[in-house]
């Protein structure tokens, strides 16, 4: 419990700093819009590239871990789709619930895996991070393009795929994977520069979340927030755990993917919502609710799989 709290508490403190700065610093809304754009287009892509490009991956267990992570996310996302009609949510609200149910805060994952399991779990962690980043960003963009109205009507699969590939987060994952597989690693000069930029991704992104938080959004959207929280913290880890057992994974190769499935919703959910037109206050409410609930669910999950 103490290790998980230590990993999660700094996130809440930075979010609280964003709330305080929004209330007391006098920065206009345009400033926070700039922070969101900078985070979405520069800082988070830099972080993804640096972490993926420089990782050491043992491909012997990479494939089954990748299958468990990707299929777990897809099945969780599929479980959300029937609620679009039954709960009668607007497309903007549904997309925020949809992506909130499978986006994982990988920064919390880094802290928990390294803090609880140590360096021995680095390999499975890198594979999990890579597959989570690729899948949630592609699926999140796809959800926005599928359910939100766009000029010119509904796009075909080819157009959706092209728009997804243009997303800077997906581009960073693909380029980072290329540099990792080829053994190039981080390029000189550019690599250290991106690494410096990447250090600002978490605080800037979380402060942007804090600036957009609304207690009324959490209170007024009880069922959508509950649904996203249940999908993220219960359904996804349970499905992923079952897949890991079915694939014969054990030890850290089993525990790490489950940890990443059980993480609270990523703060990028809010940033992406702001950039792509879904319900950003609801996305921020889901981020807040899942982080609060994860203080309880993560220790329980670690106890069950440990």
**Residue-averaged pLDDT:** 85
CATH topology: Na+/H+ antiporter like fold
Unreliable runs, pLDDT <50, ≥5 residues?
none
Shape: globular
Strand content: under 5%
Order of helices and strands: HHHHHHHHHHHHHHHH
**Helix/sheet category:** mainly alpha
Tell me roughly what share of residues is in helical segments. over 70%
Structural descriptors:
single chain, 306 residues, mainly alpha, Na+/H+ antiporter like fold, 79% helix
Describe the structure.
By secondary structure, this protein is mainly alpha-helical. The chain has one domain (2-305): Na+/H+ antiporter like fold (Up-down Bundle), CATH 1.20.1530.20. The chain has 16 helices and no strands. The chain has helices at 2-24, 29-53, 59-80, 83-86, 91-100, 106-116, 122-147, 157-166, 168-181, 190-198, 201-212, 215-220, 222-246, 252-261, 268-276, 280-305. The longest helix has 26 residues, at 122-147. The model has no long low-confidence stretch (mean pLDDT 85).
Q: Outline of this structure?
A:
With 306 residues, the chain is mainly alpha-helical. The protein is built from 16 helices and no strands.
Topology (elements, then pairings):
Elements (H helix, E strand, L loop, with lengths): L1 H23 L4 H25 L5 H22 L2 H4 L4 H10 L5 H11 L5 H26 L9 H10 L1 H14 L8 H9 L2 H12 L2 H6 L1 H25 L5 H10 L6 H9 L3 H26 L1
Helix pairs in contact: 1-6, 1-11, 1-16, 2-9, 2-10, 2-11, 2-15, 3-7, 3-13, 3-14, 5-7, 5-13, 5-16, 6-7, 7-8, 7-9, 7-14, 13-14, 13-16, 15-16
């Amino acid at each position: 419990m103490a290790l998980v709290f230590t990993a999660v508490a700094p996130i809440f403190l930075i979010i609280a700093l964003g709330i305080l700065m929004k209330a007391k610093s006098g920065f206009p809304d345009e400033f926070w819009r700039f922070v969101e754009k900078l985070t979405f287009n520069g800082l988070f892509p830099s972080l993804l590239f640096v972490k993926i490009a420089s990782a050491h991956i043992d491909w012997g267990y990479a494939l089954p871990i990748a299958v468990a992570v990707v299929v777990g996310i897809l099945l969780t996302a599929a479980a959300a789709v029937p609620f679009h009609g039954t709960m009668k949510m607007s497309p903007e609200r549904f997309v925020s619930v949809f992506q909130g149910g499978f986006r994982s805060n990988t920064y919390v994952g880094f802290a928990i895996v390294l803090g609880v399991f140590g360096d021995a779990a680095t390999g499975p962690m890198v594979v999990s991070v890579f597959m989570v980043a690729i899948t949630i960003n592609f699926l999140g963009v796809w959800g926005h393009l599928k359910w939100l109205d766009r000029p010119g009507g509904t796009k075909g699969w080819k157009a959706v795929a092209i728009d997804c590939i243009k997303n800077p987060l997906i581009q960073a994952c693909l380029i980072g994977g290329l540099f990792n597989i080829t053994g190039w690693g981080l390029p000189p000069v550019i690599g250290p520069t991106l690494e410096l930029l990447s250090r600002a991704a978490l605080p800037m992104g979380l402060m942007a979340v804090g600036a957009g938080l609304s207690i009324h959004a959490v209170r007024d959207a009880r069922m959508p927030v509950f649904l996203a929280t249940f999908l993220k913290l219960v359904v996804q880890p349970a499905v992923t755990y079952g897949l890991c057992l079915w694939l014969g994974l054990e030890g850290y190769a089993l525990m790490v993917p489950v940890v990443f499935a059980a993480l609270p919703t990523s703060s990028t959910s809010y940033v992406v919502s702001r950039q792509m037109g879904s319900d950003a206050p609801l996305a921020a409410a889901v981020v807040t609710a899942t982080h609060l609930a994860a203080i309880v669910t993560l220790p329980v999950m670690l106890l069950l799989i440990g």
